[in-house]
């Protein structure tokens, strides 16, 4: 099975991580919590910046890259998919500037340990472990 490359960007503010609830309009994992994510169509870091701008309205000047993690393979057995997740962690100075697009219906700032208790996209907690300081 070939892996599909995706980015997951975690946004950090006051030691909390931004999670977004996926809308019913997206192609996969509707209603689940996720970071900012998307298919890799260019260099993964560049793709992360593109996805963040599209999904939150934040530009490069609003972000500070803290860490780029090693990619990890996530096998979603329920949907018979293999994902290669390229994780990134960015600090956000002004979370009030965040404006969600159609891909998400809700946002929530959580402590990293809370992620395990939420209904998330596959491998989200493991992806965060790759980039946590």
Characterization of this structure:
There is one protein chain. The protein has 133 residues and is α+β, with helices and mostly antiparallel strands. The protein has helices at residues 44-56, 124-131; strands at residues 4-13, 16-22, 33-34, 36-39, 63-68, 72-76, 81-92, 104-110. Strands 1, 2, 3, 4, 5, 6, 7 and 8 form an 8-stranded mixed beta sheet that branches. The protein is globular. The N and C termini lie far apart (32 Å). The mean pLDDT is 95.
State the separation between the terminal residues, measured CA to CA.
Answer: 32 Å
Structural class: alpha+beta
Give a short account of the largest sheet.
8 strands, mixed
Poorly predicted tracts of residues? none
Overall form: globular
Helix content: 10-25%
Instruction: Please state roughly what percent of the residues sit in beta strands, choosing from under 5%, 5-15%, 15-25%, 25-35%, 35-45% or over 45%.
Output: 35-45%
Taking all Cα atoms into account, the compactness measure Rg is 13 Å
Number of helices: 2
What characteristics describe this protein?
single chain; 133 residues; alpha+beta; eight-stranded mixed sheet; 2 helices; 8 strands; 40% strand
